[in-house]
Amino acid sequence: MTDVHASPEASAPADDPSAGGFVRTLFHSDQGGHEQVVLSQDRTTGLKAVIALHSTALGPALGGTRFHAYADAPDPEEAALRDALALSRGMSYKNALAGLDHGGGKAVIIGDPETLKTEALLRAYGRFVASLGGRYVTACDVGTYVQDMDVVAEECRWTTGRSPGNGGAGDSSVLTAYGVFQGMRAAAQRLWGAPTLHGRTVGVSGVGKVGHHLVEHLLQDGARVLVTDVRAASVRRVLDAHPEVTAVPDTGTLIRTAGLDLYAPCALGGALNDETVPALTARAVCGAANNQLAHPGVEKDLAERGILYAPDYVVNSGGVIQVADELRGFDFARAKAKAAKIFDTALAIFERAEADGIPPAAAADRLAEQRIGR
């Protein structure tokens, strides 16, 4: 990793003979106000992981564990660190606007989960999370699943997103999709005067854990749905279940589709960038992916084109609402009722944006920062 330095306290990392690795606190030039950034390496299992704690002002940091190889990056470890920093900041804002008493954190395990993931590695990762003493509560994210959290929980009690058989809430993508749908309803209310996608054309890019649930909500609401995914099997699963859905070859084709009313990026981040925004035909963007804006300024480009943007960390907070509820003893009806309020939060953000003359992303940031500041 470049531009990363151990803190003075951690200049001589203490080896843990039982884990075969080390843990140290890091600083980074792009840290952006993070409280703590920690690296763990376990030589026995091959674990390399980063945990970034952005804020614990509202309570213990809560955020998922991403397991990703960053194979296309020149420096995968640097890319993982930057991802953890950006995602953990987003979690602080997400948890604040979801009304949760949690700060923001995120973990990244570096590597291909298809080849590297083992029970021993997940247990080593659990010990890493436990070493933070409850300042960070982990859950599922891209590349990790409920069964993985069950293994992590064997070593760490600050684990959520577990299976019902192990006292957890199960798959958090169910309420994530439900919350995104509520954000879509709010966008429809704002643009077309009614909280429904009935008769509208919606393009969903990424129909994996969250996207396929979102498609079902849209179809039940009477929308026409187009889908694309880099994984053919994911598209096939949707088409087998819902023959009325139309598949398109790639995201570029999807965003250029004539008559598209709403675009839903539901894969990895950076979907809204200098190439995609000018090509968008949709009137609104509302999706499940984290960090959809590739860089600062994209939100202004969307606003200048008259495209309503529902901030990602607002509308995709249904999953974190679910896993946070699990810490209290999970009640699905209670969690779903809280996720339904994403509709009201999104509408309030659209109204604040118009009143202040700023993009919705900036309005959401202001509201989140106010709660964290208080």
Automatic annotation (TrEMBL):
GO terms for molecular function: nucleotide binding; valine dehydrogenase (NAD+) activity. It catalyses: L-valine + NAD(+) + H2O = 3-methyl-2-oxobutanoate + NH4(+) + NADH + H(+). The active site is at residue 106. This is Valine dehydrogenase. SUPFAM superfamilies: Aminoacid dehydrogenase-like, N-terminal domain, NAD(P)-binding Rossmann-fold domains. PANTHER family: LEUCINE DEHYDROGENASE, VALINE DEHYDROGENASE. It is an enzyme of class 1 (oxidoreductase). It holds the Pfam family ELFV_dehydrog_N. It comes from Streptomyces cacaoi. Its main location: cytoplasm. Residues 1-23 are annotated as: Disordered.
